[in-house]
Amino acid sequence: MKMPILIHPDPRLKKICEAVTDVTGDMHRLAEDMLETMYDAPGIGLAAPQVGVLSRLIVMDCIKEEGATPRPMVMFNPEVTASSEAMNVYEEGCLSIPDQFADVTRPAEVEVRWVDMDGNEQSAGFDGLWATCVQHEIDHLNGKLFIDHIGPMKRQLITRRMQKLKREMARG
User: Are 136 and 94 a contacting pair, CB within 8 Å?
Assistant: First the structure.
């Protein structure tokens, strides 16, 4: 089931999320609904707080080539366990901050540990767009947005645009 995506500024997007203690049927359904919402948006990542759920859950799929096999990933309680000294700059966007983009510098490679849909602990290394995406989504679980990584002037400008967008959406 497609879920509505919260738009910045929203206080729920600034909250630190609770750990998922048990990967239940409800959590499976939430993950599947989040994947459907992400693909429909369309986006390459989505964190639970973006759909109003303050749990440590992210979904992502950075396969964007036409006709390529999707590679959906579901991560409960993801955490970066190691990161490279080498940095990468990507122009990031966010489904909670539609049509706004900014260059963000992050570690080029990260090692991440998480719990999968079967409740098993997993660990893997990510680089390129996958590394940027997983770090961006984990930020959401800690109440951080990509605009928190940019200068205050540009951040204020984007926030004002989002406030205006929300007023326009409220008017219908």
Answer: yes
Q: Which residue ranges in the chain fall short of pLDDT 70?
A: none
The tens digit of pLDDT for each residue in 60-100 reads 999 988 889 999 999 999 999 999 999 999 999 999 999 99
Q: Please report the DSSP string for 66-101 in residue order.
A: TTPPP--EEEEEEEEEEE-SSEEEEEEEETTEEEEE
Spatial neighbors of 118 by CB under 8 A, at least 6 apart, are 23
Structural domains of the chain, ranges and CATH numbers in brackets? 11-171 (3.90.45.10)
Among 85, 91, 121, 137, which one carries the catalytic annotation? 137
Active site residue 137: yes
10 Å CB burial of residue 79 (0-12, 13-18, 19+) is: middle
Instruction: Tell me the whole-structure pTM to 2 decimals.
Output: 0.96
Residue-level pLDDT at 65 = 86
Which value, to the nearest 10 degrees, does the dihedral of the CA atoms of residues 108, 103, 54, 115 take?
-20
Alpha carbons 115 and 106: distance in angstroms, whole number: 23
Per-residue pLDDT at 108: 98
